[in-house]
Amino acid sequence: MAPKVLVSDKLSETAVQIFRDRGIDVDFMPDVGKDKVKLREIIGQYDGLAIRSATKVTPKILEAADNLKVIARAGIGTDNIDKEAASKKGVIVMNTPFGNMITTAEHAIAMMFAVARQLPEASASTHAGKWEKSKFMGVEVTGKTLGVIGAGNIGGIVCDRARALKMKVIAYDPFLSEEKADKMGVEKVELDDLLPRADFITLHVPLTDQTRNILSRENLAKTKKGVRIINCARGGLVDEEALAELLKSGHVAGAGFDVFSEEPATDNVLFNLPNVVCTPHLGAATTEAQENVALQVAEQMSDYLLTGAVTNALNMPSVTAEEAKVMSPWIKLAGHLGDFIGQMTDEPIKAINILYDGLVSDMNLNALTCAAVAGIMKSVNPEVNMVSAPVIAKERGVQISTTKQDKSGAFEGYIKLTVVTDKRERSIGGTVFSDGKPRFIQIKGINIDAEIGQHMLYTTNDDVPGIIGTLGQTLGGNGVNIANFTLGRNAAGGEAIALLYVDARVPDEVVEKLDDTGKFQQIRPLEFSGV
Ligand SMILES: NC(=O)C1=CN([C@@H]2O[C@H](COP(=O)(O)OP(=O)(O)OC[C@H]3O[C@@H](n4cnc5c(N)ncnc54)[C@H](O)[C@@H]3O)[C@@H](O)[C@H]2O)C=CC1
Ligand SMILES: O=C(O)C(=O)COP(=O)(O)O
Q1: What is the pTM of this model?
Q2: Which of 282, 293, 304, 411 has a Cα at 20 to 30 A from 101?
Q3: Catalytic: 505?
């Protein structure tokens, strides 16, 4: 059946066309994102959800999203998506980090000019038939200092345009290196340095717990008298009440706001103040940007739902379509190894070590690690997948470490998982043969060559004669057909292990009978579907 996607925001119809062309079943309901009740009612039918900023993906919506695999934001900011809840639910969150960056940077520059020259008020006055030539005295931007808070993709373009306008640009961004700042021709500063120096301040940070209220009352008070403030990033970054007071007192000479603490903003303390230019979250509203983001979102979601390729995900490592193809048996193997060793471990897990050997060590290890951890965490939470596994492991304080090494043995490559508990360490190794089939090659350090079947029995026993005969007789006598039987031992007369691949689930009472010959464990079917 074709995957089903809901577009719940005003996306360009280009997205709808791409979904259809790629064979995805798409419902275009651009207003449903604003209707929480309706969205909750219908979300259960969909594998994918494509949104902009009007749809709020809350834990309640996610709770009802039983089939959802991917949420894609046609734009940059994902503060309207509860990413933690999505990750826990195993839903990938993607955005389109570059599609609207130029457009948004241009909007910030447009706002700066609009505020510098009071363009909207002058325009309204002229439309009204007044000719108030002396009322609208502006300031030049040339030679002025622009303080950029957040010099990432959009902030970086703003810096570039501002330098072309002959402004002095200073930037506050803890993640901006001195080298990058030099290359950009901007001076990297601390926030406390930026505030009193800037003639114009423009914000380009995401809204996070760290950036919320970054221009607080206290910080606004540190700004230079006559400063003009532009916010084309997110409402919630600036204390609007405090800014309104400073605008009224004349300390702040003007403000250009595209985003507000509450949206849609139909009422706000900044409204109707002199020299405050407001737009209704238009930062990304150009034909070019909307085409870009719609196209990217539709391609990314289709790729993921049809091929497993992951691009621009915020809660999952990227996997290209080529990688997805080559890696898929290895991802499956990592999941099976994890699932198996998870079932062998009945104490709380403290750490997981993953060794990647040979050809596998050159693959996308982040994705393989997520798959292995997902397999292991299945014992804790059967619903876990590659997205939610790292979150669940972190919540439980499980340390994850990975090592890679050059080909070290007979196999072209293998994966070995070691699970550490308070009492012991357990390990399992596996490889993928050239036929694409995953095999277990080592359990508890004992070599074995076992096919992986759906119904498996695992046993450890003392290496003494007679065990195999009794085992075969008991299973045969109870109507259980053995498809494959693999043995291994660490030394003659030492510890032996056996993996039996049987045609059907072995009844519990038969497993109990088998316990006379060793320690048997029925392995829950190893079904690993990736994400
Ligand atoms: N008005 C609109 O329509 C639009 C608004 N936006 C907003 O713009 C924001 C920025 O977008 P991009 O530049 O593409 O993101 P980005 O991720 O490329 O850049 C953000 C920058 O902020 C910096 N940063 C993070 N925490 C910080 C902190 N505590 N203090 C200072 N800097 C910090 C990061 O290091 C990064 O360089 C988006 O998150 C979104 O909220 C984006 C597109 C359109
Ligand atoms: O991309 C972003 O972060 C934006 O804020 C654009 O929002 P929008 O898609 O226009 O609702």
Answers
A1: 0.84
A2: 304
A3: no
